[in-house]
Task: inverse folding
């Protein structure tokens, strides 16, 4: 029975899309890590609570199969901010978030980092 569960989770991982713009915080990547942790012995893994395992699989399969998107359709593809889906993806990309964090830093922190980097470079020479 564990072998069947393992194969179902592997198939789900294959179907789940990876978002390369969200490296380090992509749900598909985290799902793959969790499956690898849960099934360390592959098909020979002993599952302590099969019911919970099946519930988790069914929940993830419904999300991946767009069950809730179809059950509760949206009237428009924007939110109250009128931002499109593509604009949201761009803003939530890891590179963009790093740029926003950099912009949030105050002048004092920027100067401190700049001079601490120069002093370590000069000290290494």
Result:
């Amino acid at each position: 029975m564990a072998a069947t569960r393992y194969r179902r989770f592997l198939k789900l991982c294959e179907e789940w899309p990876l978002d390369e713009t969200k490296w380090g915080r992509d749900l598909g990547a985290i799902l793959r890590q969790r499956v690898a942790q849960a099934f360390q012995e592959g098909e020979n893994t002993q599952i302590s609570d099969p019911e919970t395992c099946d519930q988790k699989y069914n929940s993830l399969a419904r999300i991946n199969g767009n069950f809730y998107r179809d059950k509760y359709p949206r009237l428009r593809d924007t939110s109250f901010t009128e931002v499109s889906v593509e604009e949201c993806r761009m803003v939530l990309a890891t590179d963009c978030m790093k740029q926003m964090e950099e912009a949030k830093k105050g002048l004092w922190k920027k100067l401190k980092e700049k001079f601490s980097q120069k002093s370590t470079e000069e000290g290494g020479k």
Observations:
- Helices lie at 2-15, 27-38, 50-64, 67-71, 85-92, 94-104, 107-123.
